[in-house]
UniProtKB/TrEMBL annotation:
This is Histone deacetylase. SUPFAM superfamilies: Arginase/deacetylase. Its cofactor is Zn(2+). It comes from Solanum tuberosum. InterPro entries: HDACs, His_deacetylse_dom, His_deacetylse_dom_sf, Ureohydrolase_dom_sf.
Amino acid sequence: MLPNCLVQKKVLHPFRKQVGGTILAAKLAKERGWAINVGGGFHHCSSEKGGGFCVYADISLCIHFAFVRLNISRVMIIDLDAHQGNGHEMDFSDDKRVFILDMYNPGIYPLDFEARRYIDLGVEVKVRFKSIKQVTSLLELR
């Protein structure tokens, strides 16, 4: 077991800052027309539970913030991570104001078949590399 003060300072506090960055990005996008937060995107965490390395549901929190505080009426989540974004999919399963586009590898974590039912546009990318040469040739880095 790790001491709580260490977990708070080294793990949870940095995660909370990233959640704040996601909320700030939403505010700035509304004000300026665009924004980005490279630290957020904890798409395995739902409002009910964490998952993967995701302990706070910043995407879901940000969308609720946008609906309530920013007077946004519809949101589109474009999730391009290799893993399915099951956290926000569960949170907005019945919310027609949220459109979810998820491009992911269906053969890796989290294998959440229930959450997949809530993807509005799913793009399953079945890619398996056997060597770094395959990756570099695909990316033309030779």
